[in-house]
């Protein structure tokens, strides 16, 4: 059995503002049994316990510690091992909440210049090339890969990409 620690502070010293809460918490955590700390919600980092616990609670816990004599090493080993056995570990994967957001009608218009036949089209993994022009509703061109001058036509190449890799927006 562990030796019983002596009372460091009297009731008047505990109630005075000269004694910080952190000192009381440190003493209780250093000397009290785990179950005692758990009952009084004094487990954890001293800084975090000091934020949540009131000084009155700490004074009561300090007094009860000496009344009940539940110091470290006083708990029977069998009781502690039973508590450890009773703890159940649950590994449940967190379910990702997927919300379907309705975006309304498409914010673009697509015009087909030449309709393709349903038999001759690129398969997944094939490389395709295309010329494109992006315009706003008022006709302003915001993006294009079509050259403006004829002599630049020899230097430029159409946009090339592989089908099925998700690198291009459909449409």
UniProtKB/TrEMBL annotation:
Domain of life: Eukaryota
Domain (PPIase FKBP-type): residue spans on this chain: 125-171
Keyword Phosphoprotein set for record: yes
InterPro entries assigned: FKBP3 (IPR043368), FKBP3_BTHB (IPR041200), PPIase_FKBP_dom (IPR001179)
Single Gene Ontology MF annotation: peptidyl-prolyl cis-trans isomerase activity
Top-tier EC class: isomerase
Keyword hit for Isomerase: yes
Keywords tagged on the record: Isomerase, Phosphoprotein, Rotamase
EC number: 5.2.1.8
Reactions the enzyme catalyzes: [protein]-peptidylproline (omega=180) = [protein]-peptidylproline (omega=0)
Protein name: peptidylprolyl isomerase
Lineage, broadest ranks: Eukaryota, Metazoa, Chordata, Craniata, Vertebrata
């Amino acid at each position: 059995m562990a030796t019983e620690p002596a009372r460091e502070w009297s009731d008047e010293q505990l109630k005075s503002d000269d004694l910080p809460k952190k000192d009381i918490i440190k003493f209780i955590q250093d000397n009290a049994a785990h179950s005692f700390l758990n009952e009084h919600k004094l487990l954890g980092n001293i800084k975090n316990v000091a934020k949540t616990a009131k000084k009155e609670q700490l004074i009561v816990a300090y007094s009860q510690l000496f009344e009940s004599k539940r110091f470290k090493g006083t708990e029977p080993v069998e009781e502690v091992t039973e508590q450890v056995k009773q703890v159940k570990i649950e590994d449940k994967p967190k379910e990702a909440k997927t919300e379907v957001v309705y975006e309304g009608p498409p914010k673009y218009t697509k015009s087909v210049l030449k309709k393709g036949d349903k038999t001759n089209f690129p398969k997944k993994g094939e490389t395709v090339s295309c010329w494109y022009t992006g315009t706003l509703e008022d006709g302003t061109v915001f993006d294009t890969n079509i050259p403006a001058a004829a002599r630049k036509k020899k230097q430029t190449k159409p946009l090339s990409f592989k089908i099925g890799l998700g690198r291009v927006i459909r449409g």
